[in-house]
């Protein structure tokens, strides 16, 4: 006859070990169910294919980082475009005041005041900052690009250079009477001619009186192996011409000149205004092209991101419906196990004595 030993310890431990396994399986199923079916332990589930999902996720991180950088770049480019738009509009508005049919005896004072106001506005626009960086400083993003022309502490270098050039040509400071009214149209043409004393004030060497900007624009990477210019230097010719335009109008002493000499100055102002505003329009077009390219790259990155996300989903995610079903089944099994454990706890060896 064979005798079988019955142990209460065995009765107690068997359901407990089953409950531990069921609880672990339930935790895993719950995790997958609440995370849209993503495996609770991706590495264990994928095995040697884990490297594939790591590569995909690295690609996603790189895209997200580039999108963030492009967002900041786009803010800078948009701000520069808007500043240029205001500069161009001011130039066109000033040019409109120079229309021959609108000029009269009081125009000289009005134009001089308008030129002074617009010069201040121009300097303010060229000293625009975004995120602590000056937009028109080229790579010198931490330094104010354009110096003030009118100062409260004294005459600026740029204005003093203008006064000195005027005195060297005419023998007195601008606006001084009776000398200014005696300036002939020919003398004024010589002063304002290309290559003349006034033009020399805006040469590369003399422009340092106005600008601390770098000629080298900021270049930003907007996609892998693709960089573009994302700033405009205050040193470009159209912006210099605007400074010429407004400083001439505000500093030449227009009201003190004879009408025939004023006509020479007006002609020069019209020429500068037309050339400058047209040039700024061209710069705006270049900046607009960069804006469009950033938008296109953003769209392309969005498509790439969707592809990578789909790849990650195919590797790391199971069926959430199946995971929910497992949760239900495991919960039922665990409840049964708890019930059996409770019943076993009530058993005694005396119940098996025959």
Key terms for this structure?
4 strands; f41 fragment of flagellin, N-terminal domain; two-stranded antiparallel ribbon; single chain; 4% strand; 354 residues; mainly alpha
Brief synopsis:
This protein has helices at 8-34, 42-46, 50-97, 107-126, 157-170, 185-192, 197-200, 237-251, 259-316, 320-345; strands spanning 129-130, 133-134, 219-223, 226-229. It has 354 residues and is mainly alpha-helical.
Protein architecture, described:
This protein has 354 residues and is mainly alpha-helical. It has a domain at 84-288: f41 fragment of flagellin, N-terminal domain, CATH 1.20.1330. 64% of the residues lie in helices and 4% in strands. It has 10 helices and 4 strands. It has helices at 8-34, 42-46, 50-97, 107-126, 157-170, 185-192, 197-200, 237-251, 259-316, 320-345; strands spanning 129-130, 133-134, 219-223, 226-229. Strands 1-2 form a two-stranded antiparallel sheet. Helix 6 (185-192) packs parallel to helix 9. The longest helix is centred in the C-terminal third of the chain and has 58 residues, at 259-316.
């Amino acid at each position: 006859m064979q005798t079988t030993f019955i142990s209460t310890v065995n009765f107690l431990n068997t359901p407990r070990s089953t409950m531990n396994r069921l609880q672990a399986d339930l935790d895993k199923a719950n995790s997958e169910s609440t995370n849209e079916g993503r495996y609770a332990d991706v590495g264990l589930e994928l095995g040697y294919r884990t490297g594939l999902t790591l590569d995909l996720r690295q690609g996603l991180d790189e895209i997200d980082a580039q999108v963030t950088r492009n967002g900041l770049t786009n803010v800078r480019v948009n701000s520069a475009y808007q500043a240029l738009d205001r500069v161009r509009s001011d130039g066109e508005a000033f040019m409109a005041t120079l229309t021959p049919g609108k000029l009269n005896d009081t125009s000289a004072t009005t134009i001089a005041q308008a030129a002074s106001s617009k010069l201040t506005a121009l300097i303010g626009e060229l000293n625009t900052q975004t995120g602590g960086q000056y937009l028109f400083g080229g790579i010198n993003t931490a330094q104010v690009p354009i110096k003030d022309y009118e100062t409260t502490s004294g005459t600026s270098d740029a204005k003093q250079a203008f006064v000195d050039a005027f005195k060297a040509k005419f023998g007195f400071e601008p606006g001084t009477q009776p000398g200014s009214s005696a300036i002939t149209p020919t003398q004024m043409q010589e002063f304002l001619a290309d290559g003349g004393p006034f033009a020399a004030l805006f040469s590369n060497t003399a422009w340092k009186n106005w600008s601390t900007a770098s000629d080298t624009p900021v270049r930003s990477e907007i996609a892998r192996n693709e960089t573009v210019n994302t700033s405009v230097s205050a040193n470009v010719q159209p912006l210099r011409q605007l400074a010429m335009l407004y400083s001439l109008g505000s500093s030449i002493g227009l009201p003190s000149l004879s009408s025939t000499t004023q006509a020479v100055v007006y002609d020069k102002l019209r020429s500068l205004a037309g050339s400058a505003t047209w040039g700024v329009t061209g710069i705006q077009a270049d900046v607009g092209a960069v804006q469009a390219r950033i938008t296109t790259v953003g769209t392309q990155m969005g498509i790439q991101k969707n592809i990578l996300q789909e790849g990650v989903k195919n590797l790391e995610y199971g069926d959430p419906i199946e995971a929910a079903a497992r949760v239900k089944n495991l919960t039922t099994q665990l409840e049964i196990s708890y019930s059996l454990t409770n019943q076993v706890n009530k058993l005694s060896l005396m119940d098996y004595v025959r």
